[in-house]
Amino acid sequence: MGVAIRLITDGEYEDVNNSWIWKLRSQGIIVRTDKTQYLMHHKFVIIDNKIVCSGSFNWTSDAITVNHEHLTIIRDYAVVTKYSSEFAKLWNYFKYQSIPSVTNTPENTPSRRIRSKRR
User: Fold this and answer.
1) Active site includes 95?
2) What is the pLDDT of residue 116?
3) Where along the chain is composition biased (Polar residues) (predicted)?
4) Which of 13, 53, 74, 111 is least buried, going by the fewest C-beta atoms within 10 A?
């Protein structure tokens, strides 16, 4: 059993060749992008509708290794419900952008473990 991942982000890097948005989409993750002139400045994650992680944390390697950031973990049902409601509004607002077919090359083909059936 897997997990459902949905992501909303700025569309700034959507058209950049080999961007992380394309990489996520090529793995089946639905990414909706804000293509408006305004900044998508929300920075939160909802986990299993039970936990919210929110703060200044930018979800980048620099945020982890260099920047001074904060991330608050919240397990309060009322707060999680409000974040979930906000995410639902944003999800419905930003239209799903489909991607054209991607030609698999060694650089963009995901590696997968294949198990053989030996008897």
Assistant:
1) no
2) 47
3) 100-111
4) 111
- Which tokens in the block code for residue 77? 């049902």
Q: Give the active site residue among 48, 62, 68, 117.
A: 48
User: Residue 86 is encoded by which pair of tokens?
Assistant: 């906000």
- Position 111 scores a pLDDT of 45
Per run of 10 residues, the mean pLDDT along the chain (length 119 residues) is 82 77 87 84 92 90 90 97 94 67 47 47
**Bridge partners of 93?**
none
3-state secondary structure of 53: strand
Q: Which of 41, 68, 95, 117 is catalytic?
A: 41
41 an active-site residue?
yes
Angle at 94 between CA 93 and CA 98, to 5 degrees: 145
Task: Give the tokens for residue 81.
Answer: 């419900």
For residues 30 and 110, the answer to whether their CB atoms sit within 8 Å is no
Residue 104, classed as helix, strand or coil, is coil
Residue 65 tokens, joined: 């290794």
Q: Which of 10, 23, 35, 43 is catalytic?
A: 43
What is residue 96's predicted lDDT score, i.e. its pLDDT? 57
The Cα 6–Cα 28 span in angstroms is 10
